[in-house]
Amino acid sequence: MSRQVPFAAPLIGAAEIEAVTAVLRSGWIGTGAVTADTEQRFADYLGAPHVLLLNSGTAALHLALLALGIGPGDEVIVPTVTFTATAATVLHAGAVPVLVDVEPDTLRIDVEAVRRALTPRTRAVVAVHFAGRMADVRALRSLCDAHGLRLIEDSAHALPAERDGTVPGGIADAAAFSFFVTKPLTSAEGGLLTMADGDAAARARVLSAHGIDRDAFARHSFGRSPHYDVVAPGLKYNMPDTASALLRCQLDQADAMRARRRDIATAYLAALADLPGLRLPPVDTPTDTSSWYLFVVQLGDGLDRDAVAAELHRHGVGTSVHFRPLHQFSYYRTEVASAAGEFPVADDAFTRVLSLPIFPGMSDEDIEHVATAVRAVLEQAVGR
């Protein structure tokens, strides 16, 4: 193999290295002024009234639930096509995840499936923006308002993205973002929580730092009092300035990196358009634009997804699978009652889905290599 294209790789340049180095030299590397500044920049970028940087997207989901008062006896509706953290945080909050099916073409949460899953115990809906394309948040907002429910967006894949005139977190009670190493923006590990209500956001901030009423930077700054009060049994979810410095540089490039991802997706859509045995992801429209975090294709009948992935690997192309539905995992089958339901769309899609490389550092030659390999492998597989 003369060329190998990994499934994903972060785009880290001199600006990120210099920013992190400056924090290391500053004498304070924990959560402090850099994190506060980065939070304000995200608030401005997203148009969000209240933002909180955290050490993971999982932490953001967990705090969203806790700050909104979700707990024992409550049910929270979650799509079965998502990463385990979406449902696991519901369980950590003491509530019960209720799994529902997804839309066939986009694998986003099915609004009608949500409607059918409502019970008197339902307290919230988690809308997962799959692969970078937003769920129908306006329809879900209307449904939640009609039934007195909270709407939480799992926006781990969607920064930036738009749908129907809104952005992630724009009309939800809370939105959780991830900055894991493969995400559209990265801080290596990290997350962001946006909240519409100031009191809920304040609760989340206190809970993120052990339930202490004053953060460590305030306590340890020269001349400040070291005394504090513990007002809640909190957690350790804060983001340090080292990670925030890296993330601040990434945010500066957010639009440019999304544009590059979109260019890669456009090239794939053109190069693979007439390929038999392949369903491509939906294209952007004026009212529905993706972050293009993932480029998820679905293979046709009779094709072995894992065999295709293995053959692409031999051609020097990395791939992944997003996602095995939650109801198929042993824990959820055993411990979550709704996992015994029927999920025909998710079950069918799981045997077909394959994620191709799409990351801003890809060269045009990388894109051509991936497209050529996919054509060669699938044409051979369908006997052309």
Automatic annotation (TrEMBL):
The active site is at 183 (proton acceptor). One of its GO terms (biological process) is polysaccharide biosynthetic process. GO terms for molecular function: pyridoxal phosphate binding; transaminase activity. Keywords: Pyridoxal phosphate. Its cofactor is pyridoxal 5'-phosphate. The modification N6-(pyridoxal phosphate)lysine is found at residue 183. Gene3D superfamilies: Aspartate Aminotransferase, domain 1 (3.90.1150.10), Type I PLP-dependent aspartate aminotransferase-like (Major domain) (3.40.640.10). InterPro entries: DegT/StrS_aminotransferase, PyrdxlP-dep_Trfase, PyrdxlP-dep_Trfase_major, PyrdxlP-dep_Trfase_small. Belongs to the DegT/DnrJ/EryC1 family. This is dTDP-4-amino-4,6-dideoxygalactose transaminase.
